[in-house]
Amino acid sequence: MIGTDNDNFTHRAIPTLILIYRLIITSRVNVYNIFVHKTEKYYISYQFNRTFHE
Questions:
Q1: Residue 48: its pLDDT value, please?
Q2: Pairwise CA distance, residues 47 & 52, whole Å
Q3: I need a labelling partner for 4 at 20 to 30 A (CA). Which of 13, 22, 45, 50 fits?
């Protein structure tokens, strides 16, 4: 009985862990993409202003 309970727990826990892991990765990737996008925008506008004023 104990063995089957552990097996059930393992079979339930692994997909949950994978799901949580995926959520963490996707949220981190989204934050990273937003950060890169913003810094790119600032960099481009900075370069543009520099060349425009020169």
A1: 79
A2: 8
A3: 22
- DSSP letter assigned to residue 54: -
List the structure tokens of 34: 């937003």
User: What DSSP string runs through 1-43?
Assistant: -HHHHHHHHHHHHHHHHHHHHHHHHHHHHHHHHHHHHHHHHHH
∠ at Cα 16 (12, 20), nearest 5°? 170
b/e string for 20-51 if b means 16 or more Cβ within 10 A? eeeeeeeeeeeeeeeeeeeeeeeeeeeeeeee
